[in-house]
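pasting input
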Amino acid sequence: MAEPKRRRIPEATVARLPVYLRILLELAEDKTATISSERLAELAGVNAAKVRKDLSYLGSYGTRGVGYDVEYLMFQMSRALGLTHDWPVVIVGVGNLGSALANYAGFGDRGFPVAALFDADPRKVGQVVAGRVIQHVDELPDVVAESGPVIGIIATPAPVAQSVADRMVEAGITSILNFAPAVITVPPGTSLRKVDLAVELQILSFYQQHSATFGRAGGASRGNGKRGGRRAALLDTANGNGTGAAGRARRANTGAVPAGG
Amino acid sequence: MAEPKRRRIPEATVARLPVYLRILLELAEDKTATISSERLAELAGVNAAKVRKDLSYLGSYGTRGVGYDVEYLMFQMSRALGLTHDWPVVIVGVGNLGSALANYAGFGDRGFPVAALFDADPRKVGQVVAGRVIQHVDELPDVVAESGPVIGIIATPAPVAQSVADRMVEAGITSILNFAPAVITVPPGTSLRKVDLAVELQILSFYQQHSATFGRAGGASRGNGKRGGRRAALLDTANGNGTGAAGRARRANTGAVPAGG
DNA sequence: GTGCCCATGTTCACCAATTCACAAAGTCAC
DNA sequence: GTGACTTTGTGAATTGGTGAACATGGGCAC
């Protein structure tokens, strides 16, 4: 092993890397050759020091006085994220959400092709969605055994989410993304992330309610230049960390504080 | 003011409250009268101490030696989250995802009725989705002005997400949930949360890749009792904080560590 | 080839969040 | 009414992450 492990990359950093990567992709399309941590921070809505620290976990890939080479940084970042090859995904539960996910082109584009669709409803099995025949969930183990490592997506109703997760784990899936509004547990060694609409809305509700306690944030919304350049960044983040929906202005660079009136 | 502000509730706690609330709802349906912090922690996939501390921010609503009254706790929690009345949502962008969201019954059920659908595509305007006529996005300000405070959901393609956010802010919306795969910025006083599919998948990819560094986590998946009771909980959390998709076992209670082989 | 300039990479101090451990406070049995 | 038992609520210690400040080191002008 040459140097396989630099430092252990913090979870918060891991959650931000994909954001940087997407920005780099856009920059590359615009034929931008190099980027400074400051500019990248601005585009990602974070602090420049944080960007530098995050990138330093990947290695010293910047050039002092110049910045980071976009192409090279993209390569290193993709490597760190394990995106050098495709990760097929299998979707269990082909209702409204499952169909939408299956049809979402962004998946395949970014290295996550939809490998198979499953449902437990016999009426759905055999139907074609997004160019794929829906299979019965009983066939999950066989499909996984054939196709190798995949990411499992749960898009079922809440009551069956845990049992689906169990079946995924048993089939050998070690990465699961749960869209069902239910807490599910998996054994150690399996990665689990969740996306929960209702929870997100309720968090927003909290901050909305809370900002109302200090006088009505709404007024300042239209504050200054509505489109002329980006403003005080609060990268907020359903993923990763930094939940920070900011009830009050937090260190407002632009000085447009809502409560001040 | 009697006692409007106890302590300031930490963001991490705010992100967990909705999870507790959902569990309480299920418990109430099962006619469970009281719940201990330990049991609640188990159901939520977190630490019991954390539950107690989280709940203590709401006030001292437990009874020592007994636990928490489910109904009463639900009430207090709903109040804290601002869920005593409905929060209408407006969805901008009625593509695959937007339609799925509009059709998602879970919204209205939980106090977030869909108030209106918008799109910029003239071919979509006038069509009916989920029982609602799609309006042109230009009408957004009028609708918001009429209906009062709403939560804005962005389900557009990435390139227009920022401009949609700007229009929402200008219309007076102060809570935005962004599904578009783009970083958007809003002025202070506006709450922003994001849900990003690609980012979630890439985070999973990282941990999948990483667990492979220590020998292949896949093997241990089937470890012990596949359904017999919940196991070492890792609440992982696309929202809130604690990104923690656990590459390796983290403090595995059950002892089934993947790398051990 | 020399020196200035500029952005990186890293150190350090701070802040937020988690976890432990335990006293306080209530119930229930008798 | 008393005592044992259970579970909460919180203070303190620890961990993880953030942000500012600064030294390091490479490019570029001349």
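fyi The first strand of chain B starts at residue 34 and ends at 35.
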